[in-house]
Write a sequence for this structure.
């Protein structure tokens, strides 16, 4: 298990090392056009190139977003910061039942293709747990 954690950290470091900040003019026009058409109210826009993918981080009405585009301008993944009250009811219920006494700290809605998952960080005192739920409330992963 320890070896898997070390490999995971090293993989993330390698991916991060490949990330390159970009000026908007360095992003292919079709990707910029698709982004601008979809998120006209975006602020604090920052572009990166990660291996062969383009990633944009931005805000809309104080909510944080990240979108990954392929080189041909297809959206591959979207992460959106949401409030705990916007979690599906079944996810909220499962957290309440299984993590009594914990409070929800951060929530992200992650969409890849037609699949949506919810990353939820819960905490109680110094104990912090990262949870990943499917849209139908199934716990997919728990990391302490």
């Amino acid at each position: 298990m320890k070896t898997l954690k070390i490999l995971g950290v090293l993989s993330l470091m390698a991916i991060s090392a490949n990330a390159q900040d970009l000026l908007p003019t360095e992003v292919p026009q079709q990707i910029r056009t698709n982004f601008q058409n979809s998120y006209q109210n975006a602020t604090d826009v920052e572009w990166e190139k990660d291996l062969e993918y383009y990633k944009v981080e931005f805000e809309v009405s104080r909510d944080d977003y990240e979108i990954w585009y392929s080189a041909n301008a297809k959206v591959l993944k979207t992460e959106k910061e949401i409030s705990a009250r916007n979690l599906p009811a079944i996810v909220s219920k499962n957290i309440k039942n299984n993590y009594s006494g914990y409070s929800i700290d951060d929530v992200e809605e992650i969409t890849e293709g037609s699949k949506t998952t919810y990353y939820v960080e819960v905490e109680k005192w110094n104990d912090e747990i990262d949870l990943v739920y499917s849209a139908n409330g199934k716990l997919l992963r728990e990391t302490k």
